[in-house]
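Input (4-hydroxybenzoate polyprenyltransferase, mitochondrial):
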Amino acid sequence: MDRILLPASFSHPLSTSSRSTDQGKEKEQEPPPPVSVSWPEAARPYAMLARLDKPIGTWLLAWPCMWSITIAAMPGKLPDLKMLALFGCGAVLLRGAGCTVNDLLDRDIDNKVERTKSRPFASGALTPSQGVAFLGAQLLLGLGILLQLNNFSRVLGASSLLLVFSYPLMKRFTFWPQAYLGLTFNWGALLGWAAIRGSLDPAIILPLYTAGICWTLVYDTIYAHQDKEDDLKVGVKSTALRFGDSTKQWISAFGAASIGSLALSGYNAELAWPYYPLLTAAAAHLAWQISTVDLSDRADCNRKYGPLH
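Output:
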């Protein structure tokens, strides 16, 4: 088998022989996706397309919304439970719609990447026309949720679709698709506050949004290290390839920026003192994740990516 030529910074962790062994172990240890047994057969490809078997991405969308809604609550009051529920449902739908768009645009790439070749379009389980119909259904349900919000929030929420639809193309043009994903996945930090207050407070919301973007750069760079060899073969870009052996230094800086931005947002919102010990604990956990992840081990990247949420 021909050896794949990689940049010098990747020559050791991506040696062909060790990777083949690791892939074999992964295949042996990989459990069947829960959706394969918990959904009717006809619904399984759609559930997989919306990543209902992998809820981590839904939490990624939901957390910034929940942070924002909670901070927007009046002092001494609990966050609006109706809004938390609406945004939770919205996160499921928007994440599913985003994955549908991503898989439609990437179907010719996904069948060349080990981790993604079983996705519904790449494997032939669904046709593009079925995917477009499913996308329309998800967006229609999402519109129903958006109409429950105030007018300012409706406009703000609808504007996020530009990011959702354009994100899958970014890895073709820039080594920073993870930054664009941060803009997309953390839009809820803006929308959650707007849904409660009817406007935006830049002193509170911009640091919160920045914190989410930097956090996304940490976890999605770790995630991208799973695919770096396949990405080189098919010609797509990522921060994992951009940072190379300097990845830990880069994501440490982004992690520090995320925690600092959260502290600034909390300070400007005049949050009570318990916020800061909790933030310190989160910082310690994030530091542990970054310091211990083995970026040359796909399985460890996947393990360390998950607990970041």
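The mean pLDDT is 86.
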